[in-house]
Conserved uncharacterized protein (Stigmatella aurantiaca), 85 residues
Amino acid sequence: MTCGIPFLGLTLRFCIKPVLETFIRLRETQASAVQVQLLSERVAYLERQLELRGLMERPIPTAVSVQPVAAESFSALAKKEQERI
């Protein structure tokens, strides 16, 4: 009894510690996923506002896949900005 209880406590501590650490990391990951979702919604809102004001050269694709932008479109955008100034 004198030796069994401390050994049982140490055994439980070393068994439960990895499970608790995993649970804590899971909660942190879920919190960061929520932050990424909020940031994604914020960027989508800002893009809609730019599109409404005519500051975007082409409409935003609504599909999940994003197509690469050609270098020519960047130069055209720079010319458009220079004309606006």
Observations:
- The two ends are 85 Å apart (CA to CA).
- Residues 3 and 75 are 77 Å apart (CA to CA).
- The chain has one domain: 4-60+67-84.
- The chain is about 75% helix and 0% strand.
